[in-house]
Amino acid sequence: MKTVEDxxxxxxxxxxxxxxxxxxxxxxxxxxxxxxxxxxxxxQAFDLDFAVGVQLDAVxxxxxxxRQIPIxxxxxxxxxxxxxxxxxxxxxxxxxxxxxxxxxxxDTFRRLIRAKIVANNSDGTADAVxxxxxxxxxxxxxxxxxxxxxxxxxxxxLVGLAQVDLALVVGVAGKLPTIVDLSILDQELIPIRAAGAxxxxxxxxxxxxxxxxxxxxxxxxxxxxxxxxxxxxxFVIENVIL
Length: 242
Known about the structure:
Elements: H1 4-8, H2 13-16, H3 19-45, H4 53-63, E1 68-74, E2 100-103, H5 106-120, H6 126-137, E3 143-149, H7 153-159, E4 166-174, H8 179-186, E5 197-204, E6 211-212, E7 221-222, E8 230-231, H9 233-241
Helix pairs in contact: 4-5, 5-6, 8-9
């Protein structure tokens, strides 16, 4: 990035020895140099990896995501000795926060924006739904997301697809999401529901466990003695975390 000194160095010796002329020129050049620096910094200021505060709000507005939670999350605040609200789970309470969280912090909002971008480009398939949620929970995390088409196509062959309920199952295994993460899923702030299809949740009810299912044994689904009951995000909040 050019500085005022870079431009002053181009003044020929005949004029560069005039201190008053050089001082006036520096005064005129400084706003132009500042403007160049500002314009050069704009792309990074609104880059999803670096944007914060109102810049992140502007990025969210362009993809259709808001940091305001329609239904505030009750009591998500960090508390020692309370399951689901300990280290890495509860949110630090700010000086102006009430009993509920209605506004996402930058880190959570950034993950929501990423998921919304993936969802905006989704084709509605089970793999695309899983990709949207992977973008939110971040690939490689201990929270595992999967989805599959649960439509009864055998029945559809008999009565026709138009008369059969379309269904998509979305499962969350492994590390339990936080209360805020589960509330985001419950309120469908990540638009993963395919048009005309019912959305069925299977969130593990045991921290670190796969979801119960027969005939499959892996980190996502496992049978008796290993797999845990799958439930809706709201059920897990009310009966497992709190």
